[in-house]
Amino acid sequence: MTTAKHRGGKTGLSETIQLTLRRHPVFSRIRQFSWDNLLKQSQLQTLKAGQTICREGEPARTAWMVLDGEVKLVRHTTRGQVLLVDITLSGEIFGAVFYRENPVQPATAITLKASRIMAFPLAVLLEEMSANSAVQRALLEDTCLKLCQSMALRSLALEDLTVRIVTWLLRLHQKFGLVIPETRATLAELAGSTIESAIRVTRELQDKGLLRLDRSRIEIISIEKLREMAGTAIPHYHRIENAKRSL
User: Fold this and answer.
1) What is the pTM for the complete model shown?
2) Domain boundaries along the sequence of the chain
3) The three-state (H, E, C) secondary structure of the chain, written as one string
4) Chain segment 29-59, per-residue pLDDT in tens
5) Are the C-beta atoms of residues 231 and 167 closer than 8 Å to each other?
6) What is the pLDDT of residue 119?
7) Residue 33, C-beta contacts closer than 8 angstroms, at least 6 positions apart
8) 200: pLDDT confidence band, cut at 50, 70 and 90?
9) Is the per-residue pLDDT at 15 higher than 90?
10) Would strands 52-54 and 108-111 be described as parallel, antiparallel, or unpaired?
């Protein structure tokens, strides 16, 4: 991992990166003097695939934004099993945990591929949030949307495997578009199934003309039919995703 601190624009951040950060709904609302202070204390991190950014249960002192690459969020069960919770892509924030008593990171973050991320001190964000209602609202909206999505996805545990696979395909479609650059092993992790079962279900979907499969990607052919198959598994799914895009 390589890390570059930004000090008054002398090192680390190009104008392109700063513009990218400023386009985020949360960062766009930060006042300029606070933004300058935040950048001075932030770090640009260049990571290889498979590197751990933070661990579940660690004190929450930092939030991150993915500039490019992919980061997976995982949790560990008491039996030592690893549960893939989500995949975070370019332009998405993770690790922003705000509550009064000893906040901790809810998941372990690991890069899926070579990535560049910005690390921001939560203390500076919290200070700005306390004096800036626009930032409060942006963070509240982002948090509430993630909570709604998390509660909706949790209900998938009661659905059969095909519905779980289809619903996660829809979730990945919202992140990547019709061509999803992920393997069926990743899809199996997200859906809580074996790789063999995920392969079987996706082959069935391909035979029905809904998907086109490759070793390293999944292409959706009929998004509407997948939505029909998901049914009411996530009743407000599209509303949540539309709200996220409008933030």
Assistant:
1) 0.77
2) 2-132, 159-246
3) CEEEECCCCCCCCCHHHHHHHHCCCCHHHCCHHHHHHHHHCCEEEEECCCCEEECCCCECCEEEEEEECCEEEEEECCCCCEEEEEEECCCCEECCCCCCCCCECCCEEEECCCEEEEEEEHHHHHHHHHHCHHHHHHHHHHHHHHHHHHHHHHHHHHCCHHHHHHHHHHHHHHHHCCEECCCHHHHHHHHCCCHHHHHHHHHHHHHCCCEEECCCCEEECCHHHHHHHHCCCCCCHHHHHHHHHHC
4) 999 999 999 999 999 999 999 999 999 999 9
5) no
6) 96
7) none
8) very high
9) no
10) antiparallel
CB atoms closer than 10 angstroms to residue 15: 8
CATH topology agreement for domains 2-132 and 159-246: no
Phi, psi angle pair for 191, to nearest 5°: -85, -5
The CATH number of domain 2-132 is 3.30.2010.30: no
CA distance 39 to 47: 19
For the segment 83-140, what is each residue's pLDDT rounded down to a tens digit? 888 899 999 999 998 887 889 999 999 999 999 999 999 999 989 999 999 999 998 8
- The CATH code belonging to domain 159-246 is 1.10.10.10
